[in-house]
Amino acid sequence: MKSIAFHLNCLCQGGAERVVSNLANRFAQEGIKVYVATEWYDENEFELDERVTRVHVGLRSEDEKKSRVTKFLLRVKYLKEFVKEYQPDVLVAFAHRANYRALMAAGNSNIPVVISVRINPIGYYDAFSDKVQIKWLFPKAAGCVFQTQEQRDFFKPYLQDNSTIIMNPINPKYFKVNRSDSPDKTVVHHARLVDFKNQPMLVRAFLKVHKKHPDYDLKIYGPDSMDGTKEILEKIISDNNADGFIHLMGPCDTLEIEIPKGEVYAYSSDYEGMPNSLLEAMAMGMPVVSTDCPCGGPKAVIRDGENGFLIPVGDEDALADRISRLIEDKELSARMGRRAKEIEQVASLDAIYVQWKEYLDKVTQK
Fold first, then answer.
1. Proportion of the chain in helix, strand, coil states, percent, rounded to 5
2. CA-based, 20 to 30 A from 253: which of 57, 66, 72, 142?
3. Do β-strands 217-221 and 186-190 pair in parallel, antiparallel, or remain unpaired?
4. Per-position b or e across 54-64, b if 16+ CB within 10 A of its CB
5. Is residue 13's pLDDT more than 80?
6. Can you tell me the distance from the alpha carbon of 165 to that of 364, in angstroms, rounded to the nearest whole number?
């Protein structure tokens, strides 16, 4: 394999975008020609290595007033033109609609398409239109990369024999962190403020923690997704006069400095693929509490009670209890943090790169 193209919507600071940027840069470092074909440019995007070529394959200014169906067909057309011009050895699509576009754009060409499922399929891949497209398009895929076994099982029988499971790679900078022996009295969290990550549940749980431990703060780092979650959080904070100890920190470019200052890390999602934020926290040696959310990402990396705590989805009492336990039992907290950091053995960028490289070489040699 001498060249590879990744296709996704953009490179804004989300989970799939983080994985693509890390992989694209790593493949480029190994001398492989890498293209990243995106639909649009956004603010606060992940950076690409200068050796990576980014190509715009989205709608053009003259397309904005066209019908929805026409826009859909144009997106496929522009991606098809990209594939024909650049002729990558393999096209790797990330995320829901990008998977469909890639399979349609490649068509009957000899360029293999590998798709990638990055979210809980239930609620995202089970609408009638999805069932039709999956039955029609997914058998055309040369392969598929899942993050968890639960994702893989959902797509029987279309993507079993030629699929694999690969964890998300963690940026190497998070493994280089040395945490203080006396961290700040702070519970920390970092992720986009978006409905399915259920940060309101985290805030309500922390209000209970704060009653027992009034000298502790909660800091939530992450950009606003503009879906109303930030406003919900602000109202909860205001209604409880909590603005002195619950802080919405906004986006941060130095998470490897700020997160390790905290004493406990909490994750509250209702569903996920493989949560990068949780992996990063573990890589930094943080004692973590996470929901055991579908489709199995946290459960794949956390051994409850050993290298972190798992709690039921939406259970703010359980979240408050586990946070309090880690605050109160410093020895337990330190031990969990050390064991969490062992995730480097399976999720370093080098380890994940090797798995992707071996799988894509296998696909392109068929």
1. 45, 15, 35
2. 57
3. parallel
4. eeebbbeeeee
5. no
6. 18
What does pTM read for this prediction? Answer: 0.84
Q: Which residues pair with 250 in a beta bridge?
A: 221
Tens digits of residue pLDDT in 159-177: 777 899 999 889 889 999 9
- Per residue in 267-281, is it b (16+ CB within 10 Å) or e — as a string? bbbbbbbbbbbbbbb
**Shortest CA distance to 217 belongs to which of 248, 258, 186, 244?**
186
What amino acid is encoded at 66 in this protein?
Answer: K
d(C-alpha 311, C-alpha 248), whole Å? 23
8 A C-beta contact, residue 60 and residue 112: no
Euclidean distance between CA atoms 199 and 133, whole angstroms: 33
As beta bridge partners, residue 348 has 170
CB under 8 Å to 203, separation ≥6 — which residues? 218, 220, 233, 236, 237, 242, 246
Domains of the chain: 3-169+348-364 (3.40.50.2000), 172-346 (3.40.50.2000)
Residues pairing with 170 in the sheet: 348
